[in-house]
Task: structure prediction
Amino acid sequence: MKPIRIFSKSLYFWIRELHLYFGLFISPFILIFAISTILFNHTFKPWDKARVQETSASVEIPEGVTGGAEGLKPAKQILRQVGVSGEISYLRYRPKQNRLIIPVMKPGQEITIDVDLEKGAAAIKRRDTDIWEALFYLHKSPGQHNANIRGNWVFTQIWRWLADTVVYLILFISASGIYMWTVLVAERKIGLILLGAGGLSFLLIVYAIVA
Amino acid sequence: MPLRNGPKWVETWNRKFHIYIGLYLLLFVWLFSISGLLLNHPKWRFAQFWPQRKQSSFERPIQPPMETENLAKATSLMRQLDIKGEIQQITTHPEKSQFDFRVFRPGHIIDIKADLDTKRAKISQIQVNGWGVFRALHQFSGVRMNDPKEKRDWLWTRIWSLSMDAVALGIIIMVLSGIYMWYKLLAKRRLGLIVLGLGALCCGIFVFGLGFLP
Result:
């Protein structure tokens, strides 16, 4: 066998293996993104069984309480004191009212901590959300807004890394899929037609929207 | 490759659909994947679009619309001003005969402030670059989860949201057909199960597990 042929056979083998295993790994992630897309697109939640629970706690106010990224450290200290974990969405500091509001999000829970900085008291409102809201949250997490503070929880950072990995693997899988399709002589013609039809419909729709 | 016994036509067509759907949706999948990546990294410098936005404003004469319903009024004004897109944020000030609304389409944000007494409209337009368009296409559905009153009112928003559904449904079919093809490969079943299980475990922790943390 010629060396080029051996190389292309082995290349095909490895591309096929990686296509298969990478595809299997990202399958559950793709299902999360695809299902939540359909629900987002129709503002539809199959059921809504959010449960709200309100508690209070006394807190020792740390130094440097403020809004924005600078206020993240003291806000995290407050979270530790009241036993709450999750991604801080933003910080609303009201110096005139001596209040700090910390909305915290994680899949399955939305928590708002309203801190009275004068009395050192925190009102904690927990909203237990359902699986659909967890999917919505994960689809949008960490999100484009408040970029200066987002990714302030270790699990958000991990999710961001996983979501990035899913995108890179999708790009690999689609490129390797094209490579494997080109090898299938019998599917070449119909494949070319579908690739062209898909590309054309994409370009036409995007052009109509943007132009 | 050893295949388990099963209806041959199911295997053949499952494989064909996997290829065909993948090829048809290729550009859509690339758009949503890469724009998702950009949304995940709003600080990436090369993809900044807001600081580079172009703003312009001008005034035009208008004919006060005869319609009584707000959406119809906005549509009539858009036709007069030759503006297209999805209508958002209609605000009326009856005491001042003022009728304001926003028109959005990826790449363009247009605010229209129409004075129905003086028959003039002030149009303020923001135009963003290709990266902004790219990101907006990812999110352009014409509806919002926290605003059930908002409805799609532009034909192309409906078509785009239909495309989003088709892409989502298409990739769900691709995932399922891929799993089916793998399952038929006896030699790959064990390693495949480990890899699929690992992916499912990661997702399971995030979807179900984190809610149990204090």
